Amino acid sequence: MIDIVRPSLKERQRKLREDAILDGAATLMDTKGFTAMTMDDVANEVGISKATLYQHFPSKGDLAVNVAVRVLDRAYEQIAAIDPDLPADERLKQLIEKLIGLRFGPGGARFIEAIPEIVQTLKSQSPYKEKETRNAALISQFVEDASKARVLGKGLSTFVVVRSIIGLMRYCEFEIEIREGKVTVPEIIDTVCRMILKYED
Hints:
single chain
C-alpha cells in the first residue's frame, strides 16, 4: 500500500497565503501596472505586513516572476483541456481564443508589462523557463496537427506560426489599444485565425 504524504496545516496555510499574495499582485499589476506597484501596495492589498510579504517573495521582480509562472500554468491547463477529437483547425482556433483571452481579456496577464524590467530574472528562473518551454511544445503540437491536416495557410512555416503566437502574447500595445477602443479581443482572435488558417469565404 502506498502512503500518501499530505501537506501539513502549516504548509497549506503558507500556500493559501502565497496564492492570496499572487492574486493581490496580479490585481495591482492590472490596475496600476508593474512599474507603479510597490511592495507596500501588495501588502496592503492582501492585508499582511510587509515583513510577512518578504518572507514569501524577496523582491517585486520575484513576485512578478511567480505571477508569470502561475499564468503559464493556467494557460497550459486551458490548452490541455481542449477536446483532442475536434478537427485540427477547430482545435487551433480554440487555442488562439484561450491564449488571447487569457492575455488581453478581463483580468488578463498584465505582468507582461514587467518583462523588460525582469527579463534577466525570468531567464535565470528555471521554473519559468521550463513552463514556457512546456507551453511552447504544446502550442507546437496544435500547429503541427493543423499543418498535417492541411488547414494552415498555404506555405506557412509551423515554426514561424508558433513563434508568432508566442510573440503576440508578449505584445503590450494591444492593451492600450483595447482600452482606447481601437480594437477588440474578438477582432484580434478573428484576425490571427484568418492569418494562419485556410478560410473559404
